[in-house]
Amino acid sequence: MTSTRQIDQPAAERLAQVAGRPAGRIALGTGGAGAGVALMLSSALANQVGAAVGALAFPAIGAVGVVAVRQWVAGIVLVGVVRPRPWRLTAAQWRPVLLLAVVFATMNLSLYAAIERIGLGLAVTLEFLGPLGVALAASRRRRDLVCALVALAGVVALSRPQPTTDHAGIALGLLAAACWAGYILVNRQLGARVPGGTGPATAAGLSALVFLPIGIAVLVAHPPSLVTAGYAVTAGVLASAVPLFVDLLALRRVPAGAYGVFMSIHPVIATVVGLVVLGQEQPWDAWLAIAAIVGANVAGQLPARHRAG
What we know:
Number of domains: 1
Mean pLDDT: 76
Oligomer: single chain
Low-confidence stretches: 1-31
Number of helices: 13
Shape: globular
């Protein structure tokens, strides 16, 4: 039986309008797993298509310009839908909000800078090591150590030292991974201290304000065409706004563990989207490395077998 609880009514009505379902009660249990899987797949696809479309704007406004527009869009959407009241937050609640704002901004900037240098598939695969590390750190099974070693081997295979290896791009990808891990941990703390969507919305709004002068400076120095601006705005909608709402609905239908397993599809989708949208081809050994990292994550989250007797 699926359990439900009443959430803030105005927020419920706004979320229901976005989701296209009647307002009132929103199911917070694990029912509708099939719909949850479809939502998670949709979120991952939107996220990676948004990243690829944003990369099309790199030649005109660079990674910083794209990230600035993405942060603006995320802030406008989140603040507009949630309508947070940050003046009601206590000092203890403000700490995780500020941390989330910093992590959110740094994660997006480092990821897009990495995409600009080393390509979408490789950058997102490196970034995925963040949630993999969090998952492995939370478990103490022998199999988890094997999974970590396999993932490490995959990273080495992807970034093996060569004269053409972009070490700065790899470092940016790993920074994005660290930020994604921090994003997960800070979000957990934020959820325990700040009710509803006030925390993420306030953090997104602050991040948008930080990028306001930076983005304006970039756009004034490099005025974008309407097509370029459209790419950047589309990236903000697909890679920030859509995943926010779709993930929110998915997590009301599937357990958190299942959600974590499905995050492993991001590197695969990123590589496929990078190939189709950006024409970024990967050698066969890179595909093997990506498969190893994804497989390590899936194996690391499989339930342990219980011995009989």
